[in-house]
Design a protein that fits this description.
- The chain is α/β, with parallel strands linked by helices.
- Helix content is 34%, strand content 21%.
- It has helices at 4-10, 31-35, 59-72, 86-90, 107-111, 117-137, 189-196, 200-208, 229-236, 270-279, 291-306, 319-325; strands at 18-20, 26-28, 43-49, 77-81, 98-99, 102-105, 144-149, 153-155, 165-167, 178-180, 182-184, 211-215, 220-222, 243-247, 252-255, 282-286, 312-316.
- α6 runs antiparallel to α9 and α8 (200-208) packs across α9 (229-236).
Length: 335
């Protein structure tokens, strides 16, 4: 791996533009995007795939490989991907950094804690849950109905036993008992909002509008009623900055945000995509899960919200996936 400062320098970034996280990864300050608002933008290429199968389709590998190939052809390409979630990595899905010679590195750091973005999302999400339960305990002046609380907690791990729980047990001093549960961090609404935000002020506005519960009268209760959006945004301040890494061939890659496509919009952050378009001639990005989820939401949610218009679409439909959807067993896909 090349020092991350060299990767940044190839994109025209200086030391003041980067926040290093060790020798091989860094965050890019938002001032970089602001300084290039009026500059020509690159072309946007989105990669998606046929409906996923247990055999894997390779859209991340194709995205990385395509970016590397464009650089070999002399084009200044920048890859934009989502961050992997620890839960699926420890399960049957595995990592989310590509495969073979088409990988983003450092693989182990990206697949595990990376720059701490997912931990920041979990902290902000769970802060809202804690403040909500604290409000119930202290007189509940908003008259929140404990039976109509929508906001769960999150943890970045597949833990079946925590999906549905009861919280607040243990007597009067331990809170108000009510049903709850845990989502995986990538399924957090905070993650989706982080990936759609254009800056810190926009993020705070989006956090303010989160629907958390209903009152006894059926009226909606938003996060702004609990006055917690500022504290949540403070926890997410650094997580808002896109992460810069590289491929095995030294192609710049922005790996930022990780919402699931079957729950949210399944794309990397708007900031990372716009940063890649501002820094390179071509941005190759990925829309998660299948075309019918990630790519559809890319076109219907991310593009209209961010004012983006793709220039090309790459649809991955492997022979193995076609066989599986045709009824061939996983063990026979290579025959």
């Amino acid at each position: 791996m090349r020092p991350i400062e060299e990767i940044g320098a190839a994109l025209g970034l200086g030391p003041r533009d980067l926040v290093p996280y060790g020798p091989t990864k860094a965050k890019i300050r938002l001032q970089v995007l602001e300084a290039r608002r009026q500059s020509p933008k690159g072309k946007l290429v989105v990669v998606s795939s046929i409906t996923p199968t247990p055999a894997g389709e390779g859209k991340t590998t194709i995205t990385i490989g395509l970016g590397q190939a464009l650089v070999r052809l002399g084009r200044r390409a920048v890859i934009a991907l989502r961050e992997p979630s620890i839960g699926p990595i420890m399960g049957v899905k595995g990592g989310g950094t590509g495969g073979g010679r088409a990988q983003v590195v450092p693989v182990d750091e990206i697949n595990l804690h990376f720059t701490g973005d997912l931990h920041a999302v979990a902290a902000a999400h769970n802060l809202l849950a804690a403040v909500l339960d604290n409000h119930l305990y202290h007189d509940n002046v908003l008259r929140i109905d404990p039976r109509q609380i929508l906001w769960r907690r999150v943890i970045d791990m597949n833990d079946r036993a925590l999906r549905h729980v009861v919280v607040g047990l243990g007597g009067r001093t331990q809170g108000v008992p009510h049903e709850g549960g845990f989502l995986i961090t990538a399924a957090s609404e905070v993650m989706a909002l982080l990936c759609l935000a254009e800056d810190l002020a926009d993020l705070k506005a989006r956090l303010r509008r989160i629907l958390v519960a209903f009152t006894y009268d059926g009226e909606p209760v938003l996060a702004e009623a609990l006055k917690v959006e500022g504290a949540m945004a403070a926890l997410l301040r650094d997580a808002l900055l896109p992460n810069l890494v590289q491929t095995l061939e030294g192609t710049p890659a922005l790996v930022h945000g990780g919402p699931f496509a079957n729950i949210a919009h399944g794309c990397n952050s708007v900031l990372a995509t716009k940063m890649a378009l501002a820094l390179g001639e071509i941005c190759v990005t990925e829309a998660g899960f299948g075309f019918d989820l990630g790519a559809e939401k890319f076109f219907d949610i991310k593009c209209p919200a961010a004012g983006l218009t793709p220039d090309a679409v790459v649809l991955v439909a492997s022979v193995r996936a076609l066989k599986y959807h045709g009824g061939v067993a996983v063990r026979d896909l290579d025959r």
